[in-house]
Amino acid sequence: MIMDDDPHNPIGVFDSGIGGLTVVRALIEQLPFEHIIYFGDTARVPYGVKSVETISRYATQITEFLLLQKVKALVVACNTMSAVAYQAIEDLSPAPVLGVVDAGARGAVAVTKNSRVGVIGTPATIHSNAYVKAIKKYDPDIEIFSRACPLFVPLVEEGWLDHQVTRITAQEYLKPVIAENIDTLVLGCTHYPLLKPVIQEILGDPIMLVDSAQAITEQTVELLGKHNLLNQQRRTPKYRFYVTDVPFMFKEVGERFLGRTLSNVTVIKW
Questions:
Q1: Both 42 and 124 in a single domain?
Q2: I need a surface site. Which of 66, 80, 181, 241 has the fewest CB within 10 A?
Q3: What is the mean pLDDT of residues 254-259?
Q4: What is the pLDDT of residue 223?
Q5: In this structure, are 200 and 225 located in the same domain?
């Protein structure tokens, strides 16, 4: 049951911080006429070190806020929220909900030829086993090799996308995963798409990359089409950004993620 099936309503995207702007970027590229509302909980990031109960409470709070904005679909761009609070969000929302973990898992299952898949993500996402469970749900025969890459997030936020330090770090992280003869690697963090060129260069062409931001965008297109919710108006869309804090370098980092000027930012105080 969809709360408000007006196709002119916005898509709601939310994340624990600003990483989910890579999902917004992919949505803007593939759905150029859709209105989008983004919520980044920048005051309470990182979520990965918090309890399941706390993460679920925060996710519920953000979901309620976005539902008041009459969103027609909810995209959970945060891997941690998608891993531990997806059910709580779905139970609360009359609008359809898409989670980045499920989208990445589906993408990996569709791409792999030898049933050997690597997954990289933050320690919280990797330790949750969310991608392993999601991939196994679609194909229990796939072997999964996970690797936490805690230094990738600060390197991306520092802007060191093609830096020697980043390249060396990526080589160290990816070496044991490549040794497992994988043919597919899932980027299990919304920061990681910015490192795609470096990661692909280290992996080599035979290994396919599954960008979870791209995967969830494709799922969103599919879902909106299925529910007749695609906005057919060919007008300039509105983008609104809500955050709970404006940390140092927020605009610079946010624009790097978004690939365009970050405007219409409102701070919500909770």
A1: no
A2: 181
A3: 93
A4: 94
A5: no
Claim to verify: residue 18 and residue 119 sit in the same structural domain: no
Confidence of residue 247 (pLDDT cuts 50, 70, 90): confident
Q: Which of 11, 71, 78, 120 is catalytic?
A: 78
In a domain, 112, yes or no: yes
78 part of the active site: yes
Measured CA distances, 199 to 102, 168, 205, 258, 262 (Å): 22, 11, 10, 20, 27
Please give the pLDDT value at position 1: 39
Query: Which amino acid would we find at residue 5?
Result: D
Residue 239 covered by a domain: yes
Based on the fold, state whether residues 35 and 75 are members of the same structural domain: yes
For residue 149, indicate whether it is catalytic: no
| Catalytic residue chosen out of the listed positions 77, 189, 208, 253 | 189
Tokens 């980027």: give the residue: 187
Q: What CATH number is associated with residue 87?
A: 3.40.50.1860
CA–CA separation, 32 and 30 (whole Å)? 6
Mean pLDDT of the chain: 93
Contact 242, 39 (CB under 8 A): yes
pTM exceeds 0.85 for this model: yes
What range defines the domain where residue 237 resides?
A: 11-99+215-267
Q: Which of 31, 36, 46 has its CA nearest to residue 13?
A: 36
Asked if 148 and 133 sit in the same domain, the reply is: yes
Strands (E), the chain: 11-15, 36-40, 73-76, 97-99, 116-121, 143-148, 184-187, 208-211, 239-243, 265-267
Q: CA 132, CA 123: separation in Å to the nearest integer?
A: 14
The structural domain count of the chain equals 2
Residues 110 and 207 in one domain: yes
Nearest Cα residue to 192 out of 143, 147, 240 = 147
